[in-house]
Specification:
The chain has 16 helices and 28 strands. With about 425 residues, it is α+β, with helices and mostly antiparallel strands.
Length: about 425
């Protein structure tokens, strides 16, 4: 076995020590005749001679990467273990899965991988009886029970149960998005996000409801949808529509609506749960706006408002629906949009039994009950319960007709008028 074939290098590559019971492994400089003439004293004459590269020789890519890894130890009872170890340097993967053609450096890795195809899950959690195909996956899972989070972010201190989760998290700080869609150029922090996004292009919806046959591009939306059938009740706040997984969490949240607010603003009498909330509120009266936009000099009381405002300049919409590809500037906008896919209508009217998928629709609907008209036409003074209705009305004064028929180029002031018109071109729409 030559050093060139193995890719194994002592001075520049790794500090691994391979301990053998029957084979004495020595690192020998082939250029030194004295070392080459050394006799075996405590073995059966078997020796592995590994060529040491000269300092002037260039490292291979595999060697360079390994040079920068932490040293570790490999032990074994036969020559096969050494061969398996050397393949980590050479990149050789001779063991191939006949099911999916994926390749591995050693037989054990292939055996572990085959459980993906056979469905075998021999590693069982002692806390909850959940089973896994790999021991490493079980170890990661057990941390959910023990609370252990050994992987810590150096920048913000957040901790994780798995190394991969930390790797994904760090990209939030570095803004690195290494997973790029080849069809539209969009990039993602996590490989799983890219896989979900690709289904927008392919139309694939692999997650199917067993009860009604409706399909989804990601498992999260399917799980939300199945609650409609199972009768499992998410606990919704009747005041704001926010959902909670347990009654206790909802009860705690309701304090924000009905609980005691001991901290009161002397200027406007608004009350708060916490002193910190009052302190932030006082900035409104003091006209203290420490967070200024670098694009337009607009200032804000709170930093999160500035962050949201920045997106009006950059056009950034980093919250993407993996079901249809639509993007949003805020996470809560995306959450409400996803209700259109899952069929969940968590926002219930406090006056009647009607419910809505989006909180804005609920607010507009409740104004029908209260008679409140917040939106007033500046031209004629007419009032409306919904801003969209007012915008449609204002076109009566401006003459603007932004909705154009693709068949005959006729234009309309509202989208509903356009839809009515299009039925003339397509009789099927009238049925």
């Amino acid at each position: 076995m030559s050093g060139e074939n193995s890719g194994f290098n002592n001075s520049n590559m790794c500090d691994n020590i391979v301990m053998m019971e029957y084979i004495k492994v020595e690192i020998v400089d082939m250029s030194d005749p004295e070392q080459c003439s050394v006799k075996d004293e405590d073995t059966d004459g078997q020796r592995v001679l590994v060529k040491v590269k000269e300092e002037s020789e260039e490292l291979t890519e595999v060697e360079w990467k390994h040079q920068h890894q932490e040293p570790h130890f490999v032990s074994g009872e036969n020559k096969g273990n050494l061969n398996d170890h050397i393949r980590t340097h050479s990149g050789e993967k001779p063991f191939t899965c006949h099911e999916c053609a994926k390749s591995f450096t050693c037989k054990k890795q292939l055996r572990d991988h085959m459980r993906v195809h056979t469905g075998e899950k021999s590693f069982v959690c002692r806390y909850c009886d959940k089973s896994f195909s790999h021991n490493g996956h079980l170890k990661d899972h057990i941390r959910c029970h023990t609370g252990e989070r050994p992987y810590r972010c150096d920048q913000c201190g957040k901790s994780f149960t798995q190394r991969g989760h930390l790797t994904d998290h760090v990209r939030i700080h570095t803004a690195e998005k290494p997973f790029k869609c080849l069809q539209c150029g969009k990039s993602f922090i996590q490989k799983g996000h890219l896989k979900s996004h690709l289904r927008v292009h392919t139309g694939e919806k692999p997650f199917t409801c067993q009860q009604c046959g409706k399909s989804f591009t990601n498992q999260g939306n399917l799980m939300s949808h199945t609650k409609l059938h199972s009768g499992e009740k998410l606990h919704h706040c009747s005041q704001c529509g926010k959902s909670f997984s347990g009654a206790a969490l909802l009860k705690k949240h309701l304090l924000y609506h009905f609980g005691e607010r001991p901290f009161s603003c002397e200027q406007c009498k608004q009350t708060f749960f916490f002193a910190s909330q009052l302190k932030r509120h006082l900035k409104v009266h003091a006209n203290e706006r420490p967070y200024t936009c670098s694009f337009c000099d607009k200032s804000f009381v709170w930093f999160h408002n500035l962050k949201d405002h920045y997106k009006t300049h950059t056009g950034m919409k980093d919250h993407v629906c993996f079901e249809c590809g639509k993007a949003f500037s805020r996470a809560n906008y995306l959450e409400q949009h996803q209700n259109t896919h899952t069929g969940i209508s968590p926002y219930k009217c406090s006056y009647c039994d009607k419910s809505f998928k989006v909180s804005g629709s609920l607010k507009a609907h409740e104004r029908i009950h209260t008679g409140e008209n917040l939106f007033h036409c500046l031209t004629c003074g007419k009032s409306f319960t919904h801003s969209g209705h007012m915008k449609d009305h204002e076109r009566v004064h401006t003459g603007e007709k932004p909705y154009k028929c693709p068949q005959c180029d006729k234009c309309f002031a509202t989208s509903s008028n356009l839809q009515m018109h299009r039925k003339q071109h397509c009789p099927k729409l009238l049925q």
